[in-house]
Amino acid sequence: MIKRRGELPKQSVHKLKDGQGTVELQHLFEAENFHGKGRLYALCTIAPGDSIGCHQHQGEQEAYFILEGESLYRENGQEHHLKAGDFALCEDGDSHSIANTGEADLKFIALITNTETK
Question: How many domains does the chain have?
């Protein structure tokens, strides 16, 4: 399967997980591509000053691979500054959030996979 640039579904989510501003998602997988093993694989774009609010993962884990920009990533109350090339994994039962702290868009790949058999 090949999908060209204009064929990937896009979604704008305002105040994602009670964060600030709007997060742009370009979905790389659709539901059927996961075969029951996950629910999100997307290119995420967050404008300067915007964020995804703190949320917990239950029965799943979420990975972020930072492509561009600078961010403040919080996981279980600990703060980390992430930039291009950095990777973060929020494991099952953990909580996290991410905010764009730079002057340009923050772009990262997000992947949510199940940790429990469904």
Answer: 1
